[in-house]
Amino acid sequence: MPKQPITHSVKDLPLVAVELGSHSVRAMAAQKVGEDLLRILAYEESNQFPCVNRGMVDQVNDAGFMINHILHLLANRLNVDTIPSAYTLIGGKGMTLAAVRSKRDLVRKRAMTEQIKNEMKKECADKIELKNPDVAVFDLLPSYYVLDDKEQDAEPTDSQKASVWEIHFNAFVGHREAREKLHVSFENAKTTIEQTFVRPDVVLSAITTGHPDMLAQGCAVIDLGAQTTTLTVYKSNQFLHNLVVPQGGWHISRFIEQQGIPFNYAEHIKCTYGKASPRFVEHDSAMVLPSTHPDQTTQRISLTSLAEFIEMKEGEILQPILNVLHTFEGRLGGVYLTGGASLLSGLPEWLQERTSLPVQYGSHAYLLDRQTDDEFCNPRYTSLVGALIHGSDWRDKHTNMVVPDRKSFASRVLRATQQEIIYIFSDSKKPDNE
Fold it and tell me: Terminus-to-terminus CA distance in the chain, angstroms?
């Protein structure tokens, strides 16, 4: 008798989020210890292979290997045999917002069920994807509801009944290839994607959860990563704008490198001594560094010159974002910075000089309990913490879900057998990477 594949109930698994970044694959595990409160249990990061380019998976085989490797390291830290599933994020270049709605006439007054909501959501996603074959809907988030011609922002309760229901969604839309490559990467890693979240929504939630006034007044979040910089504008339950600039902190380091400095030195001096503008350099001095020029072994660069290079490139990266922010002046409560590249000294002040909106760092620290190391309050972890909070909420609604242990022997045999059966009765050729 064949051995039954091993399955795990999600309620017994640690919360795990995996993020595929431009320079590394990162994984974080946490435990929910209260309402919107996490304790970080473990964290791992690896940059063995460059497998992501500007927010999109570039090499699925390398990405699969990296995911498998990083989750193995995380499992060792947690002292568990395997991590069969994880949450992940999607975003990157080409992602835009679209408004879409679905309407249902239920004939008689009745409460909205979860099944009908999901059907309406799927209808909207299908509508977009059928019209645009190269496009995928990454997620659909309700913006407001209409019950018998009466609008409301809040999600309807079980006691609210209507005969005509209408749901208006914010659709995050991107390249179909981005979604497919993400799923293939996890498939190659023999890991189940428990749920995928769009990065702008996750980052916004991590910064604003528990602060409804920020959402009511409206805010803009600038998420500065290594190879992408994302602007999200939100107000009164609606995403008003989403812009992805395919450049980030890595491109600033590359610009410094072009001045004749090896990249690893360029990255180090940017993070350690760099300023957003020469105006923020208090005491100028010069550094002697190795040179990439063939006719010289060393190169001198002053702190003022370094700041000039940084300001030149950051101005190029952030100008499209500033152009959008100008259209929302007077309509938002403020601008919040997050992401690993946001820690450049003087950046909030530099932005403040160019917009009438208040600029400050967004923080997810209030989502972490006191036993969590302060290191995880750093903005570079905001997206992972946000994914874990979203995952915790999602799991609360799906307590009966189980996931297979696809790395167990029985599951591998079953999966391989199923694949062979499919190939026998299909004209499709077996992929080379299987």
Answer: 27
Residues in the chain: 434
Question: In this structure, what token pair is assigned to residue 433?
Answer: 């990477």
Confidence check: pLDDT of 424 > 50: no
User: By the 8 A CB rule, do 240 and 294 touch?
Assistant: no
Mean pLDDT throughout 280-306?
A: 93
pLDDT at 13: 79
Contact (Cβ atoms closer than 8 angstroms) between residue 178 and residue 136: yes
For the chain, what is the radius of gyration of the CA atoms? 24
DSSP-assigned letters across all residues of 48-66: SS--EETTEES-HHHHHHH
Give yes or no for a contact between 124 and 171, defined as CB atoms under 8 angstroms apart.
Answer: yes
pLDDT of residue 429: 39
Q: How far apart are CA 284 and CA 279, in angstroms?
A: 11
pTM of the model: 0.85
- CA dist 213 and 224 (Å) reads 24
Share of the chain above pLDDT 90, in %: 69
Report long-range pairs for 160-163 (Cβ below 8 Å, ≥24 apart). Answer: 160/111, 160/112, 161/109, 161/110, 161/111, 162/106, 162/109, 162/110, 162/112, 163/105, 163/106, 163/107, 163/108, 163/109, 163/110
